[in-house]
């Protein structure tokens, strides 16, 4: 596939889903995207579990709201891809042989380019989802190599570094952030790897099963390889942000004429295990 066009458009969607009503939530997302004056884009990123809601009450509920890779959500994303010309990345519960993953699909036209199962489950997700086993995806797309991670994955620096070392120039990041430091913390992830990142978070509040309420912080954003904020959404409203990026800016890992973040790595000195 061709890479590094002069400029591409990244669209990030921030929604406020109603728990357990995927059809309503998908319709609202479609309206957010297609209701723009020009919905065309190269990449569109939707939040983690964008159509189901987040705060599950039982494994049965998770199973009932999950679907196979090529289920209704794939068809929905495929339709949006055809209408916008974009690669779509979106989070959903995916049925696997031994349970359900907190996953993401990468769809272009009628093609499923990849699916990814979240490898770092956050808090009560560990009660309901099976942990992904990898590999971390770096996907060939019409605009260049794309990495994908989901929400809490970002707090493990090895994730984005691994994808950057494998050639990713932009990383899609479906999220359901509730912790306050994510938006600012992602600036460092972009800078230390010299990649574009596109985080799609949600807004709203969920309080189910007698558990503590969750308030989602919004602030979906697109960041440049130098940590420049190219767009950030509000803390509490459904909306769409768009940014134009030049992927070639992510190819150089230099921070000074004689300092290159990747060339100067010393992996033989890094202690990555307990031995």
- Sheet bearing the most strands, described? 6 strands, mixed
Domain count, please report it.
Answer: 1
Distance between the termini: 42 Å
Mean pLDDT: 96
Q: Which structural class do you get from the secondary structure elements?
A: alpha/beta
In total, how many beta strands? 16
Task: Kindly estimate the percentage of residues that lie in beta strands according to DSSP.
Answer: 25-35%
Overall geometry: globular
CA-atom Rg in angstroms: 18 Å
Unreliable sequence segments: none
At CATH level 3, the topology is: Nitrilase/N-carbamoyl-D-aminoacid amidohydrolase
CATH architecture tag = 4-Layer Sandwich
| Spatial order of strands in the largest sheet | 5-4-3-2-1-14
List keywords for this structure.
275 residues, alpha/beta, Nitrilase/N-carbamoyl-D-aminoacid amidohydrolase, six-stranded mixed beta sheet, 30% strand
Structure write-up:
The protein is of the alpha/beta class. The protein has one domain (8-269): Carbon-nitrogen hydrolase (Nitrilase/N-carbamoyl-D-aminoacid amidohydrolase, 4-Layer Sandwich), CATH 3.60.110. Helix content is 21%, strand content 30%. The chain has helices spanning 22-34, 59-65, 72-84, 125-128, 157-165, 182-193; strands at residues 8-14, 43-45, 87-96, 99-108, 111-117, 138-141, 144-148, 170-174, 196-200, 203-206, 214-217, 221-223, 229-232, 239-245, 254-256, 259-260. It has a six-stranded mixed β-sheet. β15 and β16 form a beta hairpin. The N and C termini lie far apart (42 Å). The relative contact order is 0.17. The mean pLDDT is 96.
């Amino acid at each position: 596939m061709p890479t590094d066009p002069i400029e591409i458009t990244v669209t990030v969607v921030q929604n406020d889903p109603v728990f357990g009503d995927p059809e309503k939530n998908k319709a609202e997302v479609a309206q957010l995207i297609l209701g723009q004056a020009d919905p065309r884009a190269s990449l569109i990123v939707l939040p983690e579990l964008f159509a189901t809601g987040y705060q599950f009450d039982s494994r049965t509920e998770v199973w009932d709201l999950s679907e196979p890779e090529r289920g209704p959500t794939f068809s929905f994303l495929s339709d949006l891809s055809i209408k916008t010309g974009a690669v779509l990345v979106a989070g959903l519960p995916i049925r696997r042989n031994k349970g359900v993953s907190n996953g993401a699909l990468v769809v272009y036209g009628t093609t499923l380019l990849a699916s990814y199962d979240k490898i770092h489950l956050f808090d009560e997700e560990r009660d309901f989802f099976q942990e992904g086993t990898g590999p971390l995806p770096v996907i060939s797309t019409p605009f260049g190599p794309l990495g994908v991670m989901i929400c809490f994955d970002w707090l493990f620096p090895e994730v984005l570094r691994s994808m950057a070392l494998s050639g990713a120039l932009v990383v899609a990041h479906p999220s359901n952030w509730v912790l306050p430091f994510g938006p600012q913390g992602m600036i460092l992830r972009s800078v230390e790897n010299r990649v574009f990142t596109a985080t799609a978070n949600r807004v709203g509040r969920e309080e189910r099963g007698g558990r503590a309420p969750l308030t989602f912080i919004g602030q979906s954003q697109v960041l440049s390889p130098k940590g420049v904020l190219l767009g950030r959404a509000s803390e509490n409203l459904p909306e769409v942000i768009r940014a134009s990026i030049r992927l070639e800016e992510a190819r150089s890992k230099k921070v000074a004429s004689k300092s290159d973040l990747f060339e100067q790595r010393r992996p033989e000195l890094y202690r990555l295990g307990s031995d």
